């Protein structure tokens, strides 16, 4: 079952929107909590200020009627140490949160006969005892107790933060002043901030999503151009085309450059394969045509059969097929075996039976690789040297300290094949390692060469982590040098 398509733009926009949403919710929650905490603290400070103002009047023995109990229509209660309400705001109709529910001052005797009010007063007195502190007459307590509650003043009910401040008087004993500050500002500010967030956050998220969508579209536009061009290249099979490289010097530009490099390598590989197939077809056509002609003549006139020529063409065809098969295996990336090969012994075996070939070899020069492939390299180098030598070919095998090609530094095994021929012109020293290249095509074909020997030798050297180069000998002939990593 195929998965639904989701574009990179959609995923990037969704991810950015979700991240911003989480950040906004976290920031908004922190702002609301901080705002509420600050406003509650400010309300508590106002309530404490009002309570201490009343407590100051009590400390100076002012009568209850002269106390500032009705300033700014805030609820105020004055409770004695027995929990009786002795003074309160004039318009106070109901109160909760202070521990004393009474709203009208009562004479001491009435308060003692007051039933439930006495119970509340006793509770409040107990609370005061729990939080009390030792005070001298005329002294106001330093500790302030804060609580939340509500009150109704002149028909208006609001939430308040109450502050309780104790004061010691000379004639009335210990009194506790409860004063409240309204929380309407806190509620209004928090509600306003919440409303702004509920309206602003979705708008901000929409803006973030829209901007992200536009930015990702612009950022991915070169990628879409690369995709379209690659689709066109695939449809047309024209590997000469290249994708556009944006002038941004970023990851997309590097992607386009890498894509073009890949297309170049692919085009080169395909072109090499085409030339290989064309050259292979051309090389196979000659021995097959010659062999067919001889067989047809032999069928019509058996007495004219050139048996030696037929065998020669068959052997030539067999060698060419073997070379093509080895090249195909090398092109497919076949890794050589990891066996230890003694190059000195291999050189002596390759030179055995060849006229004019001399071997000078150090002992125990070993490498890791495929014995069969390395044997083919030496055979090809010797065939090439004998084909161009005037009289002598020399093979030397030695160890050498220093770089050996692809493997970097370390000990190298070196096999040098030198002839006393005319050498290889400097302009052709790389071209001779290309497939089906022959500097003297007619002579090479007559001698049975198809221009694959040196190409195979270099490919095998590269597969073994080494190099194969050619230069002139001091006498002017050609010197082929094979360098391989020592085992």
Describe the structure.
With 487 residues, the protein is of the alpha+beta class. It has three domains: 1-233, no CATH class; 251-331, Orthogonal Bundle (Helix Hairpins); 339-485, 2-Layer Sandwich (Heat Shock Protein 90), CATH 3.30.565. Helices cover 50% and strands 18% of the residues. The chain has helices spanning 8-59, 108-112, 116-130, 184-236, 251-300, 307-331, 343-351, 371-388, 441-446, 453-463, and strands at residues 76-80, 85-88, 92-96, 145-153, 156-168, 174-182, 339-342, 357-361, 366-369, 393-401, 411-419, 467-472, 478-485. The strands form three sheets. The chain has a six-stranded antiparallel β-sheet. The chain has a five-stranded mixed β-sheet with strand order 8-10-11-13-12. It has a two-stranded antiparallel sheet with strand order 7-9. Helix 1 runs antiparallel to helix 4 and helix 8 packs antiparallel against helix 10. It is rod-shaped, with a radius of gyration of 52 Å.
């Amino acid at each position: 079952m195929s998965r639904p398509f989701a574009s990179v733009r959609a995923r990037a926009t969704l991810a950015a929107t979700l991240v911003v949403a989480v950040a906004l919710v976290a920031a908004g929650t922190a702002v609301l909590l901080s705002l509420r905490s600050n406003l509650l603290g400010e309300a508590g400070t106002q309530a404490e200020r009002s309570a201490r103002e009343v407590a100051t009047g009590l400390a100076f023995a002012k009568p209850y009627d002269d106390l500032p109990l009705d300033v700014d229509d805030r609820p105020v209660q004055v409770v004695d140490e027995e929990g009786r309400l002795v003074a309160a705001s004039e318009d106070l109709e109901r109160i909760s949160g202070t521990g004393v529910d009474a709203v009208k001052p009562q004479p001491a005797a009435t308060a003692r006969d007051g039933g439930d009010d006495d119970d509340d007063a006793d509770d409040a007195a107990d609370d005061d005892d729990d939080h009390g502190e030792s005070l001298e007459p005329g002294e106001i307590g330093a500790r302030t107790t804060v609580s939340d509650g509500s009150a109704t003043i002149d028909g208006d009910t609001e939430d308040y933060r109450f502050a309780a401040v104790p004061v010691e008087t000379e004639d009335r004993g210990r009194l506790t002043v409860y004063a409240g500050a309204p929380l309407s500002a806190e509620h209004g500010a928090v509600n306003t901030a919440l409303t702004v967030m509920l309206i602003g956050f979705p708008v901000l998220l929409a803006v973030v999503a829209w901007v992200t969508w536009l930015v990702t579209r612009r950022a991915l536009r070169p990628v879409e151009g690369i995709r379209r061009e690659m689709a066109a290249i695939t449809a047309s099979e024209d590997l000469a085309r290249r994708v556009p490289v944006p002038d941004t010097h970023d990851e997309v530009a590097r992607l386009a450059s890498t894509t073009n490099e890949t297309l170049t390598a692919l085009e080169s590989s395909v072109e090499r394969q085409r030339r290989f197939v064309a050259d292979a077809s051309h090389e196979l056509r000659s021995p097959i045509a010659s062999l067919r002609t001889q067989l047809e003549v032999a069928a019509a006139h058996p007495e004219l059969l050139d048996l030696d020529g037929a065998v020669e063409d068959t052997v030539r065809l067999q060698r060419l097929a073997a070379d093509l098969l080895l090249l195909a295996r090398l092109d497919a990336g076949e890794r050589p075996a990891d066996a230890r090969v003694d190059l000195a012994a291999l050189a002596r075996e390759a030179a055995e039976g060849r006229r004019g070939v001399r071997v000078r070899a150090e002992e125990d020069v070993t490498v890791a690789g495929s014995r069969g492939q390395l044997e083919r390299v030496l055979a090809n180098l010797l065939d090439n040297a004998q084909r161009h030598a005037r009289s002598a070919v020399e093979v030397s095998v030695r160890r050498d300290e220093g770089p050996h090609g692809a493997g970097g530094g370390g000990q190298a095994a070196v096999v040098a094949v030198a002839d006393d021929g005319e050498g290889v012109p400097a302009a052709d020293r790389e071209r001779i390692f290309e497939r089906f290249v022959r500097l003297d095509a007619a002579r090479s074909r007559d001698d049975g060469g198809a221009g694959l020997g040196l190409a195979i030798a270099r490919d095998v050297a590269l597969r073994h982590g080494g190099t194969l180069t050619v230069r002139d000998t001091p006498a002017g002939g050609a010197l082929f040098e094979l360098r391989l990593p020592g085992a």
